[in-house]
Amino acid sequence: MENAGVGWIAAIIIGGIAGWLAEKVMSSNMGLLMNILLGIVGAIVANWLLGLLHIQPLAGWLGYLITGFVGACILIFIGRLIRR
């Protein structure tokens, strides 16, 4: 999160927004805490995947929001695969 240029409180807020957006796009029904966790963990997962592909993620709060959203969508998708 320090690499993205946001602090812990901003990461929680941005993670919550990213998780909420992913929840709406993926037609999922989760609570506020799960949205925050999905957004934060999703950003970590997406940054890791981008690193494997040698792609530099976007910096700042907007980059964190985009990577959190993409990562949260990936996590929701994987969660649905596992539940089957």
Automatic annotation (TrEMBL):
- One of its Pfam families is Transgly_assoc
Q: Which UniProt keywords apply?
A: Cell membrane, Membrane, Transmembrane, Transmembrane helix
Residues spanning the membrane? 6-22, 34-55, 61-82
Localization recorded for this chain is: Cell membrane
Q: Does the keyword Secreted apply?
A: no
Where does this chain mainly localize?
Answer: membrane
Record-given protein name: GlsB/YeaQ/YmgE family stress response membrane protein
